[in-house]
Amino acid sequence: MPQLRTSSTDPHSASQRRRTPLAATSRVTRHAGWSQIPHYSRIFGIETEYGVAVTGANQPIAATQVAMEMFKPVVSRDRSTNTYMDNGSRLYLDVGSHPEYATAESRTVLEAVAQDAAGEQIMARLAQSCQQRLATQYGEHTRVHVFKNNVDSQGHSFGCHENYLLRRQVPLRAIEHELIPFLVTRSLYTGAGRVSGSGKNAYGFELTQRADFLDDAISSATTRVRPMVNTRDEPHADSDLFRRLHVIVGDSNRSQVATWMKLATTHLVLCVIEAACRARALGESSEQDVLRTDIAGDGPFAHLQLANPTEALRQVSQDITGTAPLALAHGGSMSALAIQREYLRVVRDFVRGHSEDTNIAFPQVQRVLEHWQLVLDALASGRWQYLSSWVDWACKLRIIEGLQHRAKQQGHTLNADQLQQLDLDYHDVANGTIFSKLVSSGQMEVLMQDADVQQALHHAPRGTRAQLRAQFLQAVRHTDMRYSVDWTHVQLQEPYSMQAQLLDPFNAQPTAQLSAIMDVLTGKQHG
Amino acid sequence: MPQEQQQRSSAQQDQVVAQQEAQHSQQFQAQTQDFDAVLDDIASVLATNAQEYVSSFVQQGGE
């Protein structure tokens, strides 16, 4: 593969210059102040919908009511159930009364994981204060549960969506043929596990929460028909340069290592796909339209294209051995383990060839590759229990097996409700027992210490426009001015009318418009 | 947070993985006892009414 990256290794360096075709250069310079964006740099984001429930109340209380009660402090501060937090993230009440948290734009996987952990903390705090208020009306035993999972007891599903900013020159065809097989088979280590009755084992246990609810590989729908990748293209950035890759096939992970691996491995596979698309584009088209042309052709993972991705996802989800044969589009079949080994092989070679690029050879990349190899080796040798310190499904299944074994020794068995209760408690960030016991006893690896989560609660990820949003919010909330915020704008409404557009997610330098707003907010200048 | 590590050659990496696997195996044996102890605490989850707990969680679909 041609070496097309820049020689600089610092993604934040102002002197960074990518080797860009003429047409693309002019596109970049159209936007004054647009940062020079190195190849393979990426913006990561995770949107998590949570489920809510109440137990112990002396009269019934609906999920809608619980969610509204949880958001009372948010509404009293911002007069809306849709807000942005001081760390640049977005918090809102989504369709179906799901509290939802969308992380601020992150340039590194670790910062996205920290932001996600901050989201759990925000939900837990909202739930605890809600519980105190509800207790006065519904009794002292009222407990508010907030589930970071993807399905309720009636089979309604909700999502954990990953966003990756992707170069525009990657055609959807490449996503469909070369990324989908990866997304289907990464379930081996990203699955959160579910007692569903569908799994081919004693507990009807399957690897993923989502496999039973997905209908298609790629489409523009999200609710009536659910695809693995949604094509709603909202890059919140220059749409000439980037598209948003909106992955909705993933589970909500409690394990921070699983979230980290999910994002890191997907990022590396995307880097390979982007590099291949760029190489093809440079080799086969004029420089004039290189960033705009969707060039069809075979990439490095084209041989892994699946004949029926949704069927394959169900097969992978139902088979904890990873060995079920998945039909390939070009004939024959491969197991999930074999497909993952192939991705790992190509990615490892690619990382080796880009050892100076910090977006690929990021500080923890060797740990990612080692975890990746270990998980495949453990599954291949039938030792899934080895993975229980960071693979959510393996941990959950180990608990279920352990408790069922004990029950049998005592002459009974756990019933379906009890198995489901264990499953749900694992995901409860507010009043759950299982996950916190696993962490406090050292049985579950954590990446973020309390101080890291505190940092992520109050600070936006570095080197991104989220820092600008956070600075604006922290300043404006000390005033009584009216304002509005979204991913790409901040605005003062009253008594001043000023707006700043923040179109470059990689740029943490204030624009002239934003500087003027900040001067007003900090009293340096009066509108 | 994961530690920063240097690039390694393929052979070195295989060796590292083999070593880690052996280490994991030993750790796993040791952890099994600890895991059993955690199960004692986790079993308390089942002391509450499972049927009420499960049926309380009904949402509309999201996304």
Automatic annotation (TrEMBL), chain A:
<dbReference type="GO" id="GO:0016879">
    <property type="term" value="F:ligase activity, forming carbon-nitrogen bonds"/>
</dbReference>
<dbReference type="InterPro" id="IPR022279">
    <property type="entry name" value="Pup_ligase"/>
</dbReference>
<dbReference type="GO" id="GO:0070490">
    <property type="term" value="P:protein pupylation"/>
</dbReference>
<dbReference type="GO" id="GO:0010498">
    <property type="term" value="P:proteasomal protein catabolic process"/>
</dbReference>
<dbReference type="Pfam" id="PF03136">
    <property type="entry name" value="Pup_ligase"/>
</dbReference>
<dbReference type="GO" id="GO:0005524">
    <property type="term" value="F:ATP binding"/>
</dbReference>
<keyword id="KW-0460">Magnesium</keyword>
<keyword id="KW-0436">Ligase</keyword>
<feature type="compositionally biased region" description="Polar residues">
    <location>
        <begin position="1"/>
        <end position="14"/>
    </location>
</feature>
<keyword id="KW-0833">Ubl conjugation pathway</keyword>
<keyword id="KW-0547">Nucleotide-binding</keyword>
<feature type="region of interest" description="Disordered">
    <location>
        <begin position="1"/>
        <end position="27"/>
    </location>
</feature>
<keyword id="KW-0067">ATP-binding</keyword>
<dbReference type="GO" id="GO:0019941">
    <property type="term" value="P:modification-dependent protein catabolic process"/>
</dbReference>
<dbReference type="GO" id="GO:0046872">
    <property type="term" value="F:metal ion binding"/>
</dbReference>
<dbReference type="InterPro" id="IPR004347">
    <property type="entry name" value="Pup_ligase/deamidase"/>
</dbReference>
<protein>
    <recommendedName>
        <fullName>Pup--protein ligase</fullName>
        <ecNumber>6.3.1.19</ecNumber>
    </recommendedName>
</protein>
<keyword id="KW-0479">Metal-binding</keyword>
Automatic annotation (TrEMBL), chain B:
<dbReference type="Pfam" id="PF05639">
    <property type="entry name" value="Pup"/>
</dbReference>
<dbReference type="GO" id="GO:0031386">
    <property type="term" value="F:protein tag activity"/>
</dbReference>
<dbReference type="InterPro" id="IPR008515">
    <property type="entry name" value="Ubiquitin-like_Pup"/>
</dbReference>
<dbReference type="GO" id="GO:0010498">
    <property type="term" value="P:proteasomal protein catabolic process"/>
</dbReference>
<dbReference type="GO" id="GO:0070628">
    <property type="term" value="F:proteasome binding"/>
</dbReference>
<comment type="similarity">
    <text>Belongs to the prokaryotic ubiquitin-like protein family.</text>
</comment>
<protein>
    <recommendedName>
        <fullName>Prokaryotic ubiquitin-like protein Pup</fullName>
    </recommendedName>
</protein>
<dbReference type="GO" id="GO:0019941">
    <property type="term" value="P:modification-dependent protein catabolic process"/>
</dbReference>
<dbReference type="GO" id="GO:0070490">
    <property type="term" value="P:protein pupylation"/>
</dbReference>
<feature type="region of interest" description="Disordered">
    <location>
        <begin position="1"/>
        <end position="29"/>
    </location>
</feature>
<comment type="pathway">
    <text>Protein degradation; proteasomal Pup-dependent pathway.</text>
</comment>
